[in-house]
Model the fold of this input.
Amino acid sequence: MPEEGSVCIASEGNEALISDKSLSARVQWQSCRAKTRCARGARLVTGADIIRISRTLALEPWHFTQTAPAVAGDPTGIVLDKGRRRVFLKLANATHGCVFSVRTPSGASCCGLGDIAPTSCRIFPADTKDGAPAIRPEPGCDCREWKLEDLDQEALTEALRTWSADRDHWFEVVARWNALAAESDSELGIEDFQRYLLEAQCAREAGAAWPEEVTA
Ligand code: SF4
Done:
């Protein structure tokens, strides 16, 4: 059980999905997430997450993301280098886990991104799968068994709706990029993909066409 004095104040707002707003519940929530999600790194990120972090921190996406090999059929698999590589994007990992996981002087680990953390991180411990809301089993922490009733149902429904819309748009961004990459004679790398992502997001916000549909 984590000490109450080790609560991470920097991440106030992160616990918005917990219906129990007591300090002890927040400490447990932060501790459980740090020991599971943050220790392994943020795998489930979308283009919307990457752009939000990039804009807020004024960092290019390639400064805080990294790639890993994608399995066949993964809809987040990004085609690079004339089809020789297929990778997925995740937040960069350091030796201690997610690069945004910070250790406070009190010894608590918390998310340095606060409310701009990936949606999949913010809805912890809920599952991101479609269907009825559920708690995802998380190996690596047994200090509390989270239940659905521990979460604010209204906030959870809204967060899952955001997650679902962002994920579907992410799938489409990747699919459109892969179609472009298949036709290209250039050696397109991950930075090229992320520039495409930024353009596609600007077009989405302006209600404009996809970048490849814009004719001069
Ligand atoms: S973004 Fe924040 S919550 Fe998500 S894994 Fe990294 S440190 Fe943890």
User: Anything to note?
Assistant: The beta strands are 65-69, 78-80, 85-91, 93-94, 97-98, 101-103, 109-111. The two ends are 61 Å apart (CA to CA). The first helix runs from residue 23 to 40.
